Here is the input.
Amino acid sequence: MLCLGVESTAHTFGCAVVDGDGKILSDERDVYRAPEGKGIHPREASRHHMDASSEVLRQSLESAGVSIKDVGIVGYSAGPGLGPCLRVGAVVARTVAGYYKKPLVPVNHALGHIELGAMLTGARDPLVLLVSGGHTMILAFSASRWRVFGETLDITVGQLLDQFGRSAGFASPCGGRIEELAKKSGNYMQLPYVVKGNDVSFSGLLTAATRLASKQDVADVCYSLQETSFAMLAETVERALSFTGKKEMMIVGGVAANQRLTEMLEAACARQNAKFYACPVKFAGDNGAQIAWTALLEYGATGKKVPVSDALVTQSWRLDTVDVSWRRPVPA
Ligand code: AMP
Ligand code: MG
Here is the structure.
């Protein structure tokens, strides 16, 4: 069976066609770019998505070499995310599903990151670090749900990097530019390192790094910002590995593209005897394939679908409230 997946939680409007074996037949995206120095504006991003949606949808079918009639189900990202953006994806999905009489499957976006990562890497029962614009969470699967073993108490690591970068005059998203500059430095300057229990807090670090950048070399601050925030993540991941006893660890989300972060996590995994997996960079950020694949898993396991009139979105839909029936406990 083929699934058309629609993603629109934040900056990306994406459509993809995936088959029941996990083959990604197409993955088309159009990304909203905020004006220089500015963050994502939900209304502007949703306008972008409305303008981009028909072409992205058309391209996703064309590059998959299928017609809409060949599609078995339609999945859409129902949250968490920015309300105006989510609603565009939901409307596109319900229009297609309603008109062509296809089952419509709402998908939790965070679950999409994890399930696509697991399918692409082959990880079976990993401790997951989900690090993106919208998430900083350490999760492990237990008793039918992804349980949280650590998370941010304030802003996400993606927001830390993007807000710092914008204050330094970089265009958003800023993670890639910060990584490039950090590679040019090895000069560490002390910044607030805040781990509480197994949770992290980045807001004090953001304020301190932003202040420092007005006085010091910006490459040194980028380096120090990465070293501090990534060490906080590596410490909490390592403690969660030790606590849960998981023998696999997987990083997903846009920040997974960062080599320094993956290096630190690999070292933590080696100390805990866990195998490290990173979602391929191309699919680490937001995309329609993660939604299509998760909709296929959900529909295959439960047959659950919603009437188009119930194709709702939930801006703050937490992953640890979602029952996941297709994952089976992995024998030790
Ligand atoms: P997502 O919300 O999953 O699409 O991820 C977007 C986030 O990933 C943004 O905050 C980006 O700044 C961040 N990001 C992208 N590339 C990198 C990188 N090379 N290093 C660190 N962060 C990155
Ligand atoms: Mg995301």
